[in-house]
Design goal:
312 residues, alpha/beta, 5-stranded mixed sheet, 40% helix, rod-shaped
Length: 312
């Protein structure tokens, strides 16, 4: 082992080259300096020494110990004690990898006890494992979030599809209702005219107060409703009780009867003129006179249109 007291200035590259040449010949080295942190300090095996009162030299910088996951300054010891530690292997040159705690400078190489080097290796391995587990956990959470996002998007797409289908079904149901109502307007007109002897007035389109059915009036009084919406019938069953409900099929009759009040009169017309009983007076209704200029037996009796209702 070469003990080198470097008194003159030297660059880090030059002193590194000299150290490498000695190592190639099987000679290790320790470089000593009394200067405050020369540029090569820590780049090669080195310590800083300082003269003390009473003679002798003390190693004041170069030793380090590993504690709490960081390197920190080691003790200051007499030079002879330091050399004894080096020669007996109690301290070894170690290339630092862990972080340093102030005031220790981030030197590449430090002199330390072998157990401190082992503690650093164990700590770094533990930290590497912790970071790996954190990364794996982060990836797992990201994967779960991605799966949740995919499920959410799929759920939203499914809901949008269902809404579109429901809207399509609803639009189709409205269209079918309107077609049934339009098909029954003429049969309902004829039915009421034969039953009452008075040409009725058919409203233009469904009305909310009649469960979206088309109301048919005799004079100013509602007499019947064409194809009300079954699900809305229960809310107006009292209003419907005195009216005739006209439907297009037996199936529609059963649906409306399930929501209507007991004894509700429902006539199935099937879009064709129906056989009508002899004229009778509907329960709870008063005969309405025709306008003075109209004769039920004249040409006006056969007129069927959508016009504003006239006061009798």
């Amino acid at each position: 082992m070469a003990l080198e007291a470097q008194l003159s200035p030297i660059t880090a590259d030059d002193i590194g080259a000299r150290t490498e040449r000695m190592l190639a010949d099987g000679v290790s080295s320790v470089w000593f300096s009394d200067r405050y942190r020369p540029p090569w300090f820590g780049q090669v095996p080195s310590v800083r020494v300082k003269a003390v009162d009473g003679g002798g030299l003390v190693v004041v910088e170069g030793l380090a110990k590993f504690s709490g996951g960081q390197w920190e300054e080691g003790p200051q010891v007499p030079l002879a004690e330091f050399l004894r530690w080096v020669f007996t292997g109690r301290v070894v040159l170690h290339r630092r990898q862990g972080p340093v705690r102030s005031p220790l400078q981030a030197r590449l190489s430090v002199w330390t006890a072998p157990q401190y080097a082992q503690q650093e290796a164990a700590h770094l391995e533990k930290e590497e494992r912790r970071k790996r587990l954190e990364q794996e956990e982060k990836r797992r959470l990201l994967d779960e979030e991605r799966v949740r996002w995919q499920h959410l998007q799929e759920h939203r797409r499914r809901e949008a599809s269902e809404r579109a289908a429901a809207q399509g079904d609803h639009a189709a149901a409205i269209q079918a209702l309107r077609e049934r109502q339009a098909a029954l307007e003429r049969p309902a007109f004829e039915f009421i005219r034969r039953e009452t002897g008075v040409p009725p007035f058919v409203e233009d389109g469904g009305a909310a107060e009649f469960a979206m059915g088309v109301p048919v009036y005799v004079g100013m009084t509602p007499y019947g409703v064409i194809c009300p919406v079954a699900s809305r019938v229960a809310a107006i069953r009292d209003r419907l009780a005195a009216l005739v409900v006209f439907v297009a099929s037996e199936r529609e009759r059963r649906r409306i009867a399930a929501h209507a009040g007991p004894g509700q009169r429902i006539e199935v017309l099937n879009g064709r003129p129906a056989a009508v009983p002899p004229p009778r007076q509907p329960t709870g209704q008063t005969p309405l006179p025709l306008p003075a200029d109209e004769d039920a037996s004249g040409p006006e009796a056969d007129r069927y249109d959508r016009r504003d209702r006239m006061n009798p």
